[in-house]
Structure formats: C-alpha cells, structure tokens
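README, section 4: Worked example with a bound small molecule

Sections 1 through 3 covered apo chains. Here we extend the same pipeline to holo records, where the ligand is supplied as SMILES alongside the sequence. The molecule in this example is flavin mononucleotide. Nothing else about the input changes; the structure line simply encodes the ligand pose together with the chain.
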Amino acid sequence: MEGINLGLSSSSPPVGAAPMAGISDFPFRLLARNFGADFTFTEMVSAQGLVRDNPNTFELLRGIRQNREPVAVQIFGSEPRAMAAAAEIILSSILPAALDINMGCPVPKVVKSGAGAALMCAPEVAENIVSRVSDVLESHDPRPLLSVKMRSGWNDSSTNAPDFAARMEEAGAGLLSVHARTRSMFYSGQADWELIEKVVRRVGVPVLGSGDVCTGPDARDMLSQTGCAGVMVGRAAIGNPWIFCRIRTYLDRGEDPGDPLPGERLWLAKEHVKMEAAFRGERRGVVLMRRQLHKYVRGLPGASELRDQLNRFESAREVELLLAEYARRQGFHQEGPNFDFARVHDPRQGCRRFSTN
Ligand SMILES: Cc1cc2nc3c(=O)[nH]c(=O)nc-3n(C[C@H](O)[C@H](O)[C@H](O)COP(=O)(O)O)c2cc1C
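The generated complex, written as structure tokens:
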C-alpha cells in the first residue's frame, strides 16, 4: 500500500508547519493545512509518556487520521528501547506520514534527561534510537517516513550537524530537518542557513530547512541558498496561519496575496479560539490560545489594550464577544475567508480569496 508523504514528491518544494510545543495541536494543524501548508508536525510527544500510558501525552495524538494527512508525529526521549516502544504504540493506533525524532529541543529539563539537542552530543545513542525506531517502522505498511529534526549543533564550537546528519541517515533516517541555530542560541540570533546547505551536500536524503522563514522571499532564498527539499515555518505561523498561503502563492506564482483584512483576522482568531475550546476544553483551550491571540491582533489599533483584555478571559464566548465589540468599534467587517475548516483540501489549489484591497 502506498503511503502519503510530506509533499516531497511534488514538483514544487513543500512548505510546512514546524513542530511547536504548545502551538501545533490539531486545530492549529487544521488551520495550517487549510491555508496551504503541505505538511504539518505535531508538538513533541514524550516517549516515556506514551510508554507509561499518560493520558495527557496521548491527547497530543488526538485528531490524526489514519494515513490520511501529511503529518509527522514527533517523539522525544533518550532511551532507545522506550523510543522504539513509543513508535510501536503510535503505529498501532495511527499511521502518520512520518515519525520524527526530536534531536533539537533546547529546554534544560529535556536536555538534562539526555533527550532533544543533547542527542547531538551523543551520536551513538542517537544512532541507536534511529535504528531501533527504523526496525519498528519496517513492519508497517505503508511504512511511515522516519525523520530526525536537529539543530546546527550544541554551540558555536560544536556545529556538528553535517556529520551528525550523515550518521542519522546511515542509521535509517529517510528525512532530516535542520533548525539552523545551535542549542546555546535557543531561539535568539539569526539562523545560519549555511549549516543547512552543508547538511544538504553531505546526505542523500531530503532535508527540510528551518529557521527565520517568515515570508515568501525568505522561503525562496532558503531553498535557493541551501538546496533544501522544503522549508518549515515556525514562529511566523503563530496567530498567522495564512502565512502558508502567502508563501505558497509567492513560490508558485511570484505573487504575495498579502495579509487578510483586519475583520478577517478577527474572524479567524475567533474561530481558532472556538476550535481550541472544543478540542482542549473551554478554559484550557482559551488560556492556551492567549499567545496566539496576541499575534492575531498584533498591529491592529489599540492592540495592547485588547491583549490585556484577552488575557482575562477564560471562555471562547467572552473572547468572541470582545472581538465582535472591538470590530464594531473599529468599523471592521468581521467576516470569514471563504474556506471550510472541516475540509482539508488539496493545499496546492492555493488559497482562496484573501483580499489585499
Ligand atoms: C514555541 C515553540 C515551540 C517549539 N517546539 C518544538 C518542538 O516541539 N519540536 C521541535 O523539533 N522544535 C520545536 N520548536 C522549534 C521550531 O520547530 C523551529 O525549528 C524553530 O522555531 C525555528 O524556526 P523559526 O525561526 O521559523 O521559528 C519550537 C519553537 C517554538 C517557537
């Protein structure tokens, strides 16, 4: 049986949503896809949490449809056996397009346990993880792609991504993603795309580039400067899901459809909150959405006051009423773009109306 891939076999390089803990949940991925993301990644999922049957960990897998969408499920951990067991657990219930191993998370709690970016300092353990997970994937039809997401290296004096990537390929990875910052940089400073290029030259498998892709021209430049097979958008997609439409349209047609109108942004913000509330439960969903809501309203008149008010709400209805009242006061026509949230359409159809007038 043939599996779906992450858009890598298409004639134009895929543009997708990077994994982001606390952001890339089911509603976010659905929005990203509806706006043209060729692939999405889940938030990182703890291998130990799956093995220990932690319900909160399983929640991160909710919404993924069996071999139906180009989503990569990302797991993290440091123990090869637990990682293989986690892979088996995931594949016994869902069959994602790819299973990704996190080797880039910089968070102290994660690296102290030997997981995330710490694996770049322990290539033998990383190899062992990849080869054991690869064995698990082997017995599944269709076989999901095995991918590894890494950073440039640990710090300035250890930018070992090219060698490390070659070892991961040798161990069985069929796709590599490189966030071109070191662990010491966390998320600050400029991503060094040269490292992506070095990885691309070093390995035979496709490489996805990550770091500082915020616009269509950024995506074009990363593709041309590094030779990567596709790009990921991280922070620029937070509260800004139409970014995928803008980048896709720019790459395919050299045009930028621009930002939605303020009323459309508010409408989307409201729909996104409702989806989160339905998905996570009212209070959790709304509280978790605050960061994204701040981005949705960024640059609008009185945004800072609006953000303060949004921070006080714990129900989607309150958010909805506030945004409606704000739109009325500003004279913004709150209206949805012409797409159907429930239907994940072919992203290569491009996006619908996004008026720039
Ligand atoms: C809030 C947040 C959460 C993230 N969570 C993850 C994660 O769970 N797994 C991962 O591999 N990378 C994670 N990342 C890194 C992103 O996938 C991406 O590589 C990084 O943000 C660089 O891309 P950007 O400059 O486009 O944001 C996260 C980044 C952010 C900002």
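What to look for in the output: The CA atoms of residues 273 and 308 lie 16 Å apart. Strands lie at 15-17, 40-46, 71-76, 98-103, 145-153, 175-182, 207-210, 230-233.

Section 5 describes how to batch many such records.
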